[in-house]
């Protein structure tokens, strides 16, 4: 992926909610009470509704409590340049809607169902839909991939950025530096085990790529490592790219390196691009 020209692209800098994202097509994918949940689609040049392109939908981070869909705007614009239909999704969060994580996951499932049901309008291949996200959004995307529900809500690949993959004790081990599982039960709205991706890994999980800072003190790197280990042990391809000295959110556009090196965003985009090439989704 060539990225030297990217500063020329205009990106949304406003942090207001709901966002207005220039150059996208809005779709309401779910209505809950009086809340309209939207997807913003970044379509490639030459896109047509009759296309059958690979797609990815990103879910923002924010502890299941806040956050903004624009987090993955730049990722989406770049992937659209490569020929994918890339989307960013809104979902309900605690600070705006009084919801718990289980409801966040249900919204995300509805987003995948919408993409499949509307694939002939959106110009996407219903068998090549990836779920991506960061932190809480990475947890949500991982839940879609490994916790069995209806097939229509399961992605065909996962792209996870410092995801919360272990939110309950696993195999007798505590992978967090302090006891945070009581907090997780409050945030989940259900028993943490039922929404802890590492507890649900199976051979039916989709291929996955993970980006995680090894100095992350918000979501420990060890939680991503055990998730990847369990995936690979079952024969499910799971690439874990650990970044030395980098903390939580290191991958975000505009984030300076905590290790004193180059910003990680370009490298993570190159690795994501290579992942989709290996899947046969991009040339």
Could you explain the architecture of this structure?
This protein has 283 residues and is an alpha/beta fold. The chain has helices at residues 73-81, 94-97, 101-117, 119-122, 136-146, 181-188, 221-233, 265-279, and strands at residues 25-32, 35-42, 53-59, 85-89, 124-134, 157-161, 208-213, 238-243. It has an eight-stranded mixed β-sheet with strand order 1-2-4-3-5-6-7-8, with helices on both faces. Helix 3 (101-117) crosses helix 5 (136-146). It starts with 24 loop residues before the first strand and ends with a helix. Residues 4-14 have low confidence and may be disordered.
Q: Which keywords apply here?
A:
single chain; globular; 8 helices; 283 residues; 8-stranded mixed sheet
Gist of the model:
47% of the residues are buried.
